[in-house]
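seq as requested:
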Amino acid sequence: MDITSKLVQEYLKVEGTVNAGIATPETLEGGPPSTDLSYVLPSAKSAIVFALPLNLDAIPDYLGKKDRLTYETDYIRMSSLGNGIAVKLANFLKVQGFPSLPLAVNEVYRDGPPEDRKYMYPDISLRYLAAASGVGFLGFSGNLLTNDYGPAIILGGLLTEAELEPTKPLDKSENYCDYYNCLQCCGGCPSKTLHGQDLVTVTMGGHEHQCGEKKYTLPCAFVCGGFSGLDHSGKWSTWATGRFPLPITDEEVVAVAPMNLEAFNKRPEAPGGRYHTFSPNKIYYVCSNCQLICTPDKEERKRRSKLVRESGVIVQNEDGTLEAVTPEEARKRLDAMEPERRALYEGKVEPLAEGQELTEEEDFTHKL
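C-alpha cells:
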C-alpha cells in the first residue's frame, strides 16, 4: 500500500480528529530539544500529530464553579481516545511495513538529572509538532490554538519511518491570539506564571512561532496539581480546596511542595479524580483556566473570564464534596473548623530549614 499524507489525514478524520498535520526533521529543524524525533525513534522520518475536540458545552459551568465532573470526565476520556488513536495508527503503519511508535498524550517525560526532571519536560512536544505542521498556532499562553475550538483540544501523535509529505504551518494572519491586546489567559492564572510581559520566539524549519515568556513554570504545576488555588485577590479560586500562600518562583515551589502534598493527601477524597504517573493518590482537574477562557470569539473570552472572577471560592465539605461560596462565607466556614482540619486547607507552610532533608516517602520530587 502506498502510504501518503492524504491517506494518514483521512484515517485520522475517520477516527474523529478535527485537525491533523505532519512534521519532519526538516520542518522541525532548529526547534527545542523536545522536537528531536530521534530521542524516541532514531529512525523516524515523520511525526504525525492530531487534535481531538473537548466538549465546549461543559466549559461555562466548569469555569463558573457549577459543575467540575462533566469537564473532567470529558478530558480524561478524550485523552484516552488520543492515546488509543495513536496506538491504532502506529500499528496500521507498522503492518504496512513502516515501524512506528505512538506518543503519549501526557505523563511521559524525559530522563535527565533530578534538577531537570522536576520540570516534567515531554519526550516529544506535541504542541510544537502541531504548530510546525499547521494543526494550530501557539497563543500567548503557550497553548495550541485552533480556529474552531481554540485551545479546547487534546493533542495526540506518533512517529513513523514512513516518509510523508509535511503539512505547512499556518500563516500568521490566521492566528486569532491578540497577545498584548487581550491577556485574558493571564487574568485567569492564580499562579501568575503568565505574567503578560515578554514574548519568546521558537523557530522550527525557518518559521517563527511566538508565545508568552514563563519566567517560572513550577508555580503553574503547584496550582494545577491542586495544592492551592486561591487567587492573590482572595475573591476567587480554582476548583482547588487549598488556600496556602502561592509560591512565586520555582525554588519556592520545591521548598514548600512536600508539606503542601502532605496536607493535600490528608483531605477527604473528592468526587471524580484520576491517577497520575507520579502519584498513588487521586488528583483532580481544578484549573485549566488559561486553556478554557481562550476562544476565537472575543466577546465569549470576556464572558468566560468574568465567569471565573465571579465564581467565588471553593470550600470542601466534610464528606469531600466541593462547594463554591462567596469569599466571606468561605472565611466563616474555615474559622468554624477545628484547628487540625483547618490546617489541611490554609496556614503558613514553612520551607525546610537549612540542612534539613526529607525522606523519600515525604518528598514527591524524587519521582520526577
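The two ends are 42 Å apart (CA to CA).
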